[in-house]
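the two lines:
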Amino acid sequence: MSNIATLKIWRGADRAHGSWQTFEVPFEPGQSVLDGLRWLRINKDPSLAIRFSCINANACKECMIRVDGETVYACTTRLEPREMTLTPLPNKQLVRDLVTEIAPPSERFGT
Amino acid sequence: MPLESIKIETDVLVIGSGAAGMYAAIEAERRGARVLIADRSLIGRSGATVMAQMTVAVALGEEVPDDWHVHYSDTIAAGRGLCDARLAQLLCQDASECIREMDHWGVGWARKDGHISQAVAPGHDRPRCVYVDFLNTGPAVSKTLRTVMARNPRIRKAGDLCIVDLVTSDGEVSGAVAYHLESGTAVTIAAKATVLATGGLTRLYRRNSASANMGGDGYALALRAGAPLIDMEFPQFFPIGHLAPRLIGMDPIMWDPFRYKLGGRLLNGQMEEFTSRYGSSEDGKYVLTRDLATYAIFKEVEAGRGSPHGGAYLSFQHCSEPALREAFGPVIDRLAANRIDLTRMPVEVAPIAHYHMGGVPADARMTTEVPGLLAAGEVVGGANGANRLSGNAITEALVFGRRAGRTAAESIKSTQKFRARDARAALELVGADAPDGTNTAAMVARLQSIMADDVGPFRTDAKLRRALAGITALTEELGDRPPGRAVPFNLQRLEWFDLRNMLLVARAVAETALRRTESRGAHQREDFPTTLPHWQAHQRVVLAGDTLKISGAPTTAGALVS
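prediction for all of em together
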């Protein structure tokens, strides 16, 4: 079994002008996609925008993204030793990269 | 060039939306104040509260007769001589009102035979700890308070709003400078009273049990606003944080409720019970306080008798499948998805950074030594001395939050002290830019390694000096301007502001630990292993220029205020 997970990630601040970037991250059985994204920020590209708070407890529910077209929490989705496609939620306002506006309007600044 | 900023004016600014911050906001509003509650993450979803799967200590007397004085005695005993008696009293005395109000708001405390269930936790003399099934205490507390706030449009809620500095006007806190993470916009907030409810500092450590945003912001904000900190050498390690096998979708402190309900056996790498070697037998029950259990596990690992990943085994193999299901229902399926069958295998556990006893000193009205600044919850120092009793964290968040909200609301008749010129320096920092090259994510990881390796629960002079040298090097590397530009969701800039706080707070922890040449509660010096009577005193830290000044302070332990 390969010990590399390949993350193909949508990057950008405007849905019409995004780009794809592909990163290889070391894979260890039992890891989550969020583990891979955190490793990537520390070791490859700290400019990647992701939203998470509680790390791996699935308590904050902030790390909702799409993996291979399915809406999931990055912290409870297993990292796999293959190419995985990561995109921001399609039905929420895009902020940047994998981050979207997921808070209810009454809890947002400025509304 | 300072950025154009959005200007906001409110009576009460609450910083942080864990249990303490939300309760403060609710209480201040119902006493007539206009409230703005700001969180650097999403409202009600970050911080430590939402991660607390464990229990809440309160002398309700639902399970067996109880009295707050007894809860108070247990709190003082656990604190190893350093509890601030007034705060410990407030915590224990006001707990039932807050717990009952939470019940009224529908938190759903677990019940049996028509009464609220109360479990025994280590350090308590009787069943006293309420909880929400299954492993749902913190999420339920957060959700309940968030729902109460959501019904109330007079509480203005601002997620993704990062407070950079408090603003002081003539020595009084008059508001804050912030920026909105989602847009990068600078914000100034004028407030008559400001409540710090930012939680603790567990993010300073590699393995920790709280959210990624608990980097000690409030301690740094307080220091720079002129407030002192006390007891900074006492971060608490939770002894049985999950270590292996790898788990996803679970909180690393999940084994605590398992032990409340099922006991469980703590075993070394050779499958022997070992806590009696350190003078404290467990006998299949969950009785050992956190400092003693942490000590026993570390010493066993050091002696070469640890589990494969460097901790201890925790076994529930004595429990049947039906017993496990009755106690934890769907959690057993989540464990199965992680390939863990507790009837057949032990798990590995090890101490994990969990809570901070130290912080901003406050009186029983939650006012600090700086006018206009209040504190609530974990950011407050003193209530729990050198070792917090199990179950007191959510209790203090609720009790101190409510009390801070009440006091803050008294400010509504006063006038705003905020002047634009007092916010200028912080606004310039928010608007500053610098070359983009800094790998802030890696710097956070390096700081976490320094703290875990050299400022963990077991310290020596040499390790602490090495840590301080590492902290100094990182501080120099960080520089005085945030990298990149204020564009939407720039995590490197956020991490730069985080590191500015984390490095200051890490220094406060390491310097006070170096100076305390004894062992007490969560602070264990391998080169000074005994507890010394003359060290039954708080150390107090203030910021003078770029230097931390540390002095002793007399303790008020043991004196019950009537």
